[in-house]
Specification:
By secondary structure, this protein is of the alpha+beta class. It has a single domain, classed as Rubrerythrin, domain 2 (Single Sheet), CATH 2.20.28.160. Helices cover about 15% and strands about 25% of the residues. It is globular, with a radius of gyration of 13 Å. It has a 3-stranded antiparallel beta sheet with strand order 1-2-3, with no helix packed on it.
C-alpha cells in the first residue's frame, strides 16, 4: 500500500480509479499528492508555484 511522502501514513485508495498526474489529498495530513505511477502506485508532493519558481531560479 502506498504511503504519503509527507507524513508516511498508508493511503488506502482504489487504485483502478487513479491516473498518472491526478491529484489526491492525504486523509491524514491534508497534503496534495500527485500520482506519479500507477503500477506500482506512487505519490509525490505537489509543488506550489512558489517552490517551482525557486527551483527554476536555481538553474
Amino acid at each position: 500500500m502506498p504511503t504519503c511522502p509527507e507524513c508516511d501514513v498508508a493511503i488506502d485508495i482504489e487504485e483502478e480509479d487513479l491516473e498518472e498526474g491526478q491529484i489526491v489529498e492525504c486523509p491524514e495530513c491534508g497534503a496534495e499528492l500527485e500520482v506519479v505511477s500507477t503500477n506500482p502506485l506512487e505519490f509525490d508532493l505537489v509543488k506550489d508555484e512558489e517552490e517551482k519558481d525557486d527551483e527554476e531560479e536555481a538553474w
